[in-house]
Structures are given as structure tokens and as C-alpha cells.
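**User:**
Make up any protein.

**Assistant:**
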Amino acid sequence: MATGSRSRADNGVISGFVLRMLRESIPLPQTALAEQLGIDLGTLQGWESGRRPLGNVRTMDLLQLRRTLTLLGAETALLGWLDAALDADRILTAVLRLPDHPGDHPLAGWVQSRETAHLVAWAVRGITPPALQARAARPRRGPAPAGPQLSAADRADFFTHLRQTAESADRAGERGLLLRRQSLYLASYDPAPDAEDWAEQALRTMRPALALRDYTPRWIEARTAATVAARQGDPALLHDFVDALAGDQHSELANLAYWAYWLGSMPSTQPDDGFLHRPDPTAWSPVHLFQQLAGSLHDAPGTVDLYVHSLHTLLHLHPWLPLADPAAAQHLRERAPELLDARVLSPVSRRDVESVHYLLQQTN
């Protein structure tokens, strides 16, 4: 543990940077927005820099901030990132502080969204979320950071503390599995030379779940182990996981349910993995899920097999989807031959692509 980790102040750098992007989307200078909000310039500057975390603002004041930004013409889509940014700041603060009891960690108390995870990665690795790349690249006056800024010491401590959190997750009781797998996912962004070796050791406790062929509560362990290994350059476990998916309907539906949550096709209100034990296809939007899976293929060089198989399952469950979104269907028609020519897929995934391409051609 880094010295003084528990005395660290609350972190607000991520929500502060999103607030800055919202102000720039109007666009207004800081002085004008502060006047519109009825606050002094120093308060707004503190929010945007993270020195005064937005997460510490009173609920009614935060609600008024949202409404004012909306009335002033801030981008609606960007406003939707503010909640994820507040959650990401909460995670940053907890990781850097290390709660006395692992069960109190926010990673043990809620299933994080894709937006939250991507925002954390932006702060600790400088990886801009794909959905924000165009906005973050807009020119600004003078020298300005391109994303949320953490000190080098905080970035190093973040990954050191994540490892400690994952290793002590069993102390969180029934929340331990959720805490471990979410810590492992964020730790996969660690650029340290020994990160891959550490992840290999940490994943060993999850790998036995890969041998289970029918759905069990440990299914999510298998998915986590497979996807983290694939993101680090070892696709073999992911190929085995996808092969196992094809033989069990519950696992197939659980996989779609997780994608629906991760990609925003269902409400992000899951406190644990229970929604995977009882996957309900009526709980998510199949059209939105189809759009998101199809549109994210280019962002998944390590996990493309899982994307492909998930699209295959979704299209067989809802064969009308290409008619509901012809643009997404056309994108897949063009992408399928490219995937087959690239020879990066397992034999099972190649068959999935061929099947998807056939279904798409039938609706063309």
C-alpha cells in the first residue's frame, strides 16, 4: 500500500473533464457559465480541474447544473456521460484509498458500465473512449490537457492497489467474485512489465470455471478469464469459451444479457450478477444490441470471436433485425468477407461469420 493512501482527498478529475467538455459544447467560457450557474469562477474552475469533486456537490445543486447545461444547449449525448463520470471518480477514489473492508469497495457493490470502465481507463492510461474521441480532439485555446489528468504517482498506485484489491477479494464475502473480476478487468490496462505475469497468476483461480460446460454461477468467471487473456494476446481461452457457449442455451442468453448491460441496451441498474442467472430477452433492446455489436467489431481486435458469436446468436434469436436496421446490416455484410479473409478467427467463429453473412444476404 502506498504511504498515505487513506488520507487522499476525493477524486473529481473525470467528471470535471466531462463538465469542461459540456461547457465547450455550448460553447461558453468559464466566466459566462459561472454567471449562468450563479457561482463564483473559482468554484467552476475547481469542478473542472477535479480539485472540488462534482461528486461532493449537493444533489439539488447537481440537478440544477444538469438543467442549466441542457437549457444552454450542451450536447445531449455528452450529458449522458456525466453519471458514468461521477461513478468513475468514485472508483478512482476508492482504489487509491483502499477501503478498510473489501466489501465496501464500489467495485463490489455494482456492475460497472462500459462507459464507466472506459472513463477510468482514460484517466489512468490516456485511452480516450471511442465514443468521445471526436469531441476530445476538438481544438482548444492554448495548452490544454487532452483528457482527465492523474499524476504519475497516482497512476502507479492505482494499478498497485487494484492488484491488492483483487488478491483480497475473498474477504468481501459473497461480493468477492464481483470485486475480483471487475478489479481484474481494470488491471488489464496496466502497462507495467510484470502486468501480464500477474494477471496470469490472478486468473488461475477463475480458469477452472472454463471447464464447466453448462451454466453455473461461475460462468461469469469463465467469461472474465477468457476475455482478459484475449485482450492480453492469448486467444486460446476465448476460443474454448465460445465453443462452450454454443452448447448451452442459458449460457448463450447470459452472454447476450451481459452484452446488453455492457453496451447500454438495458438499464444500468444491476447491483450484482444475478441478472445473468435469470436472463430475460425482454429486458433489453435487441435492435440497440444489434447496432452496438455490429458497430463495435472494429474496436475488438482481441475479442472479435466473442463479438461474432454473439451476433450469430442474436440474429438467430431475432432474424428480423437486419430489416429493423438496414444500415447496421449493410455494415456487417461488408465486414464479414473482410473477417474471413483476415484469417484471425477460430474455426467455430468462421462458421458463425458464414452463417451471419448468409442470414444477411437473405434479407438484402
